[in-house]
Amino acid sequence: MSESVRATVYLQLEAELHHYSPRVPEVQSDIVGAKVVNSTQRRSAKPKSGTVEVKIQVEIPKAAFLALRPEAIVVIPDGMTLAHPIEVEAIDPNEEES
């Protein structure tokens, strides 16, 4: 029996723009950040206009549900924006790095 479980989430991300940028980004420098505007367990039939939908699979040890509250920052490089799975390892924020 596996010691971990997987969950899938679809995130709809919206670009955060400079206050002086047009409503639709014309160049990458118009974009200063991104925010999650919706999350679902299945691909959205009608995603919000101007958003990008990203599928994320999270694999987490079953033991994490007993005590830990894992936290992670996921960085997705340009070259991995196609259908390539990304693996992330959660680190206990209470542990010091060696």
General description of the model:
- The chain has strands at 4-17, 31-40, 51-61.
- It is built from no helices and three strands.
- It has a domain at 4-60.
- The chain is mainly β.
- Strands 2-1-3 form a three-stranded antiparallel sheet, with no helix packed on it.
- The chain is 0% helix and 36% strand.
List the helices and strands and how they pair.
Blueprint: E1 4-17, E2 31-40, E3 51-61
Antiparallel strand pairs: 1-2, 1-3
Short description:
It is built from no helices and three strands.
Q: For the terminal residues, how far apart are their CA atoms?
A: 32 Å
Gyration radius from CA atoms, angstroms: 17 Å
Average pLDDT across residues?
78
The side-by-side strand order for the widest beta sheet comes to 2-1-3
Helix/strand-derived category reads mainly beta
Number of helices: 0
Question: For the report, how would you describe the main beta sheet?
Answer: 3 strands, antiparallel
Number of strands: 3
Give the overall silhouette: elongated
**Series of secondary-structure elements, N-terminal to C-terminal:** EEE
Unreliable residue stretches: none
> Percent range for helical residues?
under 10%
Beta-strand content bin: 35-45%
